[in-house]
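Q: What would this chain look like folded?
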Amino acid sequence: MTQLELVIPLRGTDPGPDGTRLDPALSTWRAAVTASADACLLLAADTRIVAVSRAARQVLGFGPEVAFAMPRFLDAGIRFLDFTAGAHPLVDSELARLAPVQALQTDGLERSLMRIEHRGVHRTFDVTASPLHSPPRLDAVGSLVFLNPIGPT
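A: My prediction, written as C-alpha cells:
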C-alpha cells in the first residue's frame, strides 16, 4: 500500500544549509510574537513555525523548544479534528484549508475555525491569519496567526 504525502504549493524561500534560515524581514515579527501576551504564532513562507507566544504554546501543547526546532505547522504534532461528533482527523484537503496555510497560499487575510485535540481534550479556536510582506517582493514572506479559544478552556 502506497502512503500519500500532503503537498501544498507555497512560495517559500529556500532554507539555509541547516534548513532553518529565517527571512530577515521576519526578525522584528519574531520578537513581537515571542513577547506577546496573545496566543499567536509566526510562520515562515514554507509553513515552518518560527515564533510562538507563551499563550499559544500552552493552548497548542507545545514545549519551549518548538521555536528552535521550527517544525512545519502541519507536522508540529497538532492533531487537527473535524467538527463531527466523532471528531475524526482532518484529511489532507481539509488541512490545506486551515487559515494559517491559506494565508500563505492566497496572500490574503484568512479566517477559519480550527479544532484540535490537546491532552485528550478537544479545543476549538477562531483562527485569523495575515500574510506578511516585505516590499518590493510581492509574495508573502510569512504569516502572523492569532488563536482565539472558543468555549471552555
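The two ends are 40 Å apart (CA to CA).
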